[in-house]
Amino acid sequence: MTYRLLFLFAFSIITTLAIDAQSLLNQPELDERVRSFLDKQASQWSSMNIPSVDGHLLYNLIIENNYTNALEIGTSTGHSSIWMAWALSKTGGKLTTVEINEWRHAQALKNFKEAGLENYIDARLADAHELVHQLTGPFDFVFSDADKNWYQKYFIAIDPKLKINGCYTSHNVSKKNKSRWSANYLDFLKNQSHYKTEINEKGAGVSISYKIAEK
Ligand SMILES: C[S@@+](CC[C@H](N)C(=O)[O-])C[C@H]1O[C@@H](n2cnc3c(N)ncnc32)[C@H](O)[C@@H]1O
After folding, report:
1. Which of 131, 145, 149, 150 has most ligand 1 atoms within 8 Å of its beta carbon, as the pocket-test mutant?
2. For residue 63, what is the domain's CATH number?
3. Domain total for the chain?
4. Nearest CA residue ID for atom 25, ligand 1
5. 92 lies in a domain?
6. Could you tell me if residue 21 is inside a domain?
7. How far is the CA of 3 from the centre of ligand 1 (A)?
């Protein structure tokens, strides 16, 4: 009897894992193309772009939570977008990303194409101060990485468009970061009682805020 129960338990775990693995879209050729692009580009990103360890973090958050509708504020030349779009290519999702600088936007478009991810990215050349009010969402994942003095305003504008269980992440937010804006922003996040916020300090600091209720 005990063996039978153990067998059934193991069988149900294996079946659940198999279903989870199957629900991720499998595109080995695309994976290979993205990997080789990221390898080739590794030493080319500027200090503006996120470090790879933070890219990996964004990738994992999307995959683990099966997010499908992501928004990025601050594309630059597209490093973080590529990590997120790669994850979204597996969940069947799409990324909307916004950049105000024409040259960086053009460069990002080139990079998305080279990585083979252009079909997963809606890249807008726009001022995010305005665009965040026009976008309807709903989103389940947000990455904020543009002008730091606008972080709170971005959060307030996007909050009603983020689904419950969705996740709002912000870059360069760290307990080690001694700048006043980072401490103020972290206080602001911690005061959002309808979110649960943690910080990942492995790279440049990423705040990860899960929405647990509507305001
Ligand atoms: C730190 S970089 C983003 C890096 C990018 N996430 C990456 O990892 O490749 C910040 C970007 O935000 C853009 N930005 C600043 N203010 C903006 C605004 N109001 N609207 C849209 N983009 C803005 C800047 O031009 C810059 O390219």
Report:
1. 145
2. 3.40.50.150
3. 1
4. 101
5. yes
6. no
7. 58
